[in-house]
Design a protein that fits this description.
292 residues, alpha/beta, six-stranded mixed β-sheet, 8 helices
Length: 292
């Protein structure tokens, strides 16, 4: 599947109409309906949004950093005039009166939000089985769990129902389903991203995190949603270097630590082989192997 960065570049260059492209995503959501990744999709709203972004490009206006990219949101994030259920019957009839800050930033960057994804009820779970809308399923083995609580977002990105997605992470609820589904999930530093418009699980720990099919894609979305917000007093202004781009050289002034427990002899052989392949790839990119 094509990266979000590539999609954005091709759209800016005029290689496709988003109003045509959005139909592929809506069809993919229908095709993968059995995975139960989405709680809410407003197809007509998505089509209208696609037409507006196409018209903006046709008019020669500057395009935002997410133009041409389709994004899914965990259904504990508020979008104005849309339901936010947190996968619970308690909020069955609730409609948000405002946009979360991350939603406004995505819209300002010309991103297209296609729908709201499934989760464990009020984000309390690690499998996306505990949802009033039924469990979400693993994209490769539907009888397996997809992780959670942001499982629907992970499945959406893994299957191409969206290019990027947002989830929320308190103790692993972005990172764990990303690992289960073979995509990249990132929990930013606390205070890096505004939590205004997130239905909180544990306010002192929650962060809105990004899903992508690569590190670069996940960083692409983080770059848009990060930053100060007067509606969130926990924003941390320290650290002006938000992101490090190592794609140009394949090397970085970084230390990557892999816990020694990962090399236990009683691990499943397949896991040990994959870890060894990762280390070999890092060596090729110039990282030095040291133990300690």
């Amino acid at each position: 599947m094509e990266s979000a960065i590539s999609k954005h570049s091709r759209f800016v260059q005029g290689e496709f109409l988003l109003s045509d492209e959005i139909e592929k995503y809506l069809q993919s959501i229908e095709t993968h309906k059995h995975l139960n990744a989405f709680i809410f999709v407003d197809a007509e709203k998505a089509r209208q949004r696609a037409r507006e972004i196409d018209q903006k490009r046709a008019a020669g206006k500057p395009l935002g950093a997410l133009a041409g990219v389709v994004i899914a949101l965990k259904d504990n994030l508020c979008i104005k005039d849309e339901p936010v259920t947190c996968a619970s019957n308690i909020l069955e009839k609730y409609v948000s009166p405002y946009d979360a800050t991350v939603v406004q930033k995505i819209l300002d960057a010309d991103g297209l939000i296609i729908g709201k994804t499934n989760l464990d009820e009020f984000a309390m779970g690690s499998s996306t089985e505990n949802s009033a809308f039924g469990p979400a399923h693993h994209p490769l083995k539907p009888d397996f769990v997809c992780g959670g609580s942001s499982g629907g977002s992970a499945v959406a990105v893994a299957t191409g129902m969206a290019d990027l997605a947002l989830g929320s992470d308190t103790g692993g609820s972005v990172r764990q389903p990303a690992a289960f589904c073979g995509v990249v999930g990132l929990k930013p530093t606390y205070g890096r991203v505004s939590r205004f418009g997130l239905v909180a699980y544990a306010s002192s720990l929650d962060q809105i995190g990004t899903f992508g099919r690569s590190v670069a894609d996940a960083a692409m979305l983080l770059k848009v949603i990060a930053g100060a917000d007067p509606n969130d007093s926990t924003f941390q202004s320290s650290g002006s270097r938000l992101f490090v781009d190592i794609s140009a050289t394949g090397k970085a002034p970084l230390t990557i630590g892999i816990p020694g427990q990962f090399f236990r002899m009683d691990w499943i052989p397949e896991i040990s082989k994959r870890i060894s392949k990762i280390i070999d790839e890092l060596k090729k990119r110039g990282f030095q192997n040291q133990t300690g």
